[in-house]
Amino acid sequence: FYPLLLHVRMSSCRPTHRNNNALSSKTPSSTLTRRRRHALMKRGGQKRTKSRSLTIRNGFLENILKAVTPKDAKEIQKEKEMKRVKLIEQSPKGCMKSAYQLLANTVIDGEELVLAYDATRDGWTASAFHERVDGKGPTLIFGKTAKNARFAAYNPLGYFSVEDYRDCPAAFLCVFKNEQSFLNGDASGMEILPNVGSPAIFDFGAQGPSFGPDGLRIPLGNAPANGSSYAGIGEATTSYGSSKKCISRLGSHYAGRSDGVTSVFAKGEKNETNLKELIALVSPSMERDGLYVS
Question: Distances in Å between the alpha carbon of 115 and those of 139, 184, 259, 280?
Fold first, then answer.
């Protein structure tokens, strides 16, 4: 009995064949090297995975920072130029193509425009004009005279019928050298006539667009003698004989032309003529209730 018990106990204390292999000094060094290499590769793979994950997170944070960081002036201007070029290319020949070109470097550069007022469609009256443009923001006027001369006028302040005149150095008039310049929006065929005197804009509800007291005045009917709608009470009005009458004299409030013509009209029309067309373009993105400041 006792020898058998001793044999069992000794047998239970022997190491297994697997343990002998693991602890044996006879295990080839190449096997151990492979195991170590495998372990290191696993650890390296885990590190690379973590590194890739961190890179993704950093990129995500950079995108957020880019979205909330204000753009600099050069970046904003570049975006506007790209929008403008696209709008010019997509626009049909005529006022829209010329409008987008004319409005380069203004507050509505690159903004989509819509036709707010068309005298032929809406009526040659001051009330029709102001009903459709007041509060719409910066406004671009296009006109065509009896002798087919084309002109444009830009009011960065817009119209509100405030019964007052305002200074605005950014306002300007424009004449087109010929019809093709107008149709194609050719910048080389447009002559910009900047504001050179105060006041630049008249904003009176009883008359149409007026740029200075004499630069360009389109009364659209009976205009108040002193320019204000308040003067329209009773008989204090001046009749221009036609709602299509237009007056222009350059030099004192808007710069003169390079060809010496003293108005935005054709040479033979001097400083007064009748209009064939009159339209106003605005940008819906700039519509507001309050007044714009120059």
Answer: 10, 18, 31, 6
Whether the per-residue pLDDT at 62 is higher than 80: the answer is: no
Element (H, E) at 142: strand 139-145
Q: Which residue in 130, 211, 141 sits closest to 169, CA to CA? A: 211
Q: How far apart are CA 182 and CA 191, in angstroms?
A: 11
CA angle 130, 195, 75 (to 5 degrees): 90
pLDDT per residue over 193-242, tens digit each?
999 999 999 999 999 999 999 999 999 976 555 444 443 433 344 555 56
* Structure confidence by residue, pLDDT tens digits, 136-165: 999 999 999 999 999 999 999 999 998 899
The enclosing H or E element of 20 equals helix 17-23
Classify each residue of 174-211 as buried b or exposed e, where b means 16 or more C-beta atoms within 10 Å of its C-beta.
bbbeeeebbbebbeebbbebebbeebbbbbbbbbbbbb
Integer Cα distance of 79 and 84 in angstroms: 9
Residue 38 tokens read as 């495998």
Neighbouring-strand partners of residue 180 = none
DSSP 214: T
- Summarised one tens digit per residue, pLDDT across range 89-108 is 999 999 999 999 999 999 99
**What is the dihedral sign for C-alpha 283, 131, 211, 95?**
positive
